[in-house]
Structures are given as C-alpha cells and as structure tokens.
Amino acid sequence: MFKRSLIILSIIFAALTSRAQTTDEVYNQYLDFNLARLQGETDKALTLGQDLIPNVDKLKDNARISFYYSIGNLFENDGQSVKAIEYYEKVDAAVPDYYVVQRALGYLYMKDANDLSEKLNASRSNINENKRLTILYTAAAKKALPHLEKSQACDPNDDTLSLIKSLYKNMGDTQGAATLNSRLKALSKNCVDLLDDK
C-alpha cells in the first residue's frame, strides 16, 4: 500500500512539474498574445490572454502592466466591463498617471451612473426611491470623476469636459465645479501616455 501511494504521488508530482511554465515560455506566450492583438485577431488574442493570466506573475513588471492594459482593453471591447475594470484597476494602481487607463475607467464607471440616471428620472414620483437612487448616483459619479478629470487634464477633450461639468451639476456640487480648472491644471503636470513593456 505504501509503495502504491508513493508511486501515485510521484506521478502526480511529475505531472504538476511538467505543467509549470518557465519565465521564457510565459514571455513567448505574451509575445504571441501581442502579435495576435496587433494583427487584429481579437478572438485569438483574447483566448491567448486568458491562457496567460494564471502565469502572468512570471512576466517582468512593465510587461505585466502592459499585459493588464491590453487584456483589459480586449475585455472592454468584448463587452465584458467587469473584467475590463479588474485589469484596468491593476494598471491604475501601478501607473496612476497613465491617462489612457484613466479615461477607460472613467467611462466604464459612468455606465453605472448612466443606468442610475435613467432610474432616477423614472422614480421622480416616489420620494424615498428617488432619494435612494440619488445617493447611488452620486457615489457612481464620484467614482468616475477622478478618472475622467485625470484623463481630461492630460488629454483635453470637449466631450469629457462636458461630461465632468454635467456630473457636478447633476450632483449639485458647485464647489467641485468651481475648483475644476485648478484641479485639472495640477493633474496635468504628471501625464503618462505610453506604457513601456521592456
């Protein structure tokens, strides 16, 4: 019995170690992922990216951050907002001045605010429901605003600026609206527009 258990454990150990990928193999997967993405093979890139996720910690920091942005973008374009946000937030944590991810997060968070806005308009006759939805809308807007403002500070866009101003107006936050220009000026000092994966 002991010999049989030892043989089974040896087989299991051999199987597990043969599946472990080396750093070079993971980097090659990352290169294949990027190639598919750059060639417009989005389905293939998404599959390769999902296969890479369990071993992404074997990539160097810059490559891992670049991967997180790229896989987040693929998830966003595939309509998987929750997964996109998960990976964009990893990029935001590592490179908070990368305004491209700030814009993506801001607009993804705006989806919740937009949904709540529609519900708010429909609940005007129900005071309690309207108050509850107003609180939720304000929280969603406040979640989107810092990302939208960083994006606007680094890459000014009339639509984004209009959206920011309308959020402050909808929340009744005159102080936030009044200090917007000074915040944008301060935020514009540290902008990253490209991620280096080397």
TrEMBL record:
Please report the residue spans annotated as repeat (TPR): 65-98
Instruction: Determine the domain of life of the protein's source.
Output: Bacteria
The yes or no answer to whether the keyword Transferase is present is no
Q: Could you say which residues form the signal peptide? A: 1-20
Q: Which InterPro entries match?
A: TPR-like_helical_dom_sf (IPR011990), TPR_rpt (IPR019734)
Q: Which UniProt keywords apply?
A: Signal, TPR repeat
Q: Does the keyword Glycoprotein apply?
A: no
**Protein name stated in the entry:** Uncharacterized protein
